[in-house]
Design brief:
about 55% helix, Alpha-Beta Plaits, 2 domains, alpha+beta
Length: about 170
């Protein structure tokens, strides 16, 4: 690969890393063309950007990026694809859905400013809640006491209204 081509690829990877908040390093070695095409289609539908990259070029991107990505360097062996996403658990759920016998396998992930190394972390990653899910949980918890108070007031008002109406109907 020529030096100009390498710099172009590095720029593309770096731009994607800045555009998306989370990324997963995945091994797609054992997938055939049909399975790879199917995975790409599912990634597109889930708003995940999938790129097959050279380990040396990804290593340079991670070195030049803000922050310390050294825990990921040991995962850059063999064939590597990188999955970029703005929702932290979406790639993990997709990998869990399409994985047959551990293929494709997770090498490592950078999610919510934390590193997850190894295929055994896939279950933990898929159980992570996204930012929107956490906000929804907090809103539901905040609304719960208010709903209980309103419900109690409404039922009390209906009870009092019923009693008064019954007393008013008596002769």
């Amino acid at each position: 690969m020529r030096k100009e081509d390498k710099s172009t690829v590095i720029e593309k990877i770096a731009a994607a890393a800045k555009e998306f908040a989370h990324f997963y390093l995945v091994d797609l070695t054992a997938l055939d063309a049909t399975a790879t095409s199917d995975l790409r289609r599912k990634c597109f539908e889930s708003q995940i950007k999938l790129m097959v990259v050279k380990n040396s070029l990804l290593h340079k991107v991670l070195e030049n990026n803000d922050g310390d990505f050294s825990p990921l360097y040991d995962s850059l062996k063999g064939s590597t694809a990188i999955m970029f996403s703005n929702v932290g658990n979406t790639p993990a759920k997709l990998l869990k859905e399409v994985a047959k016998g551990g293929i494709p396998s997770l090498k490592a992930a950078y999610v919510e400013e934390s590193f997850y190394i190894g295929a055994d972390q896939l279950e933990a990653l898929s159980n992570l809640k996204s930012k929107n899910e956490l906000i929804a949980d907090v809103v539901a918890l905040l609304q719960s006491p208010a709903k209980n108070v309103i419900s109690a007031l409404q039922s009390g008002g209906n009870t009092i209204h019923g009693v008064l109406q019954t007393l008013g109907d008596r002769k």
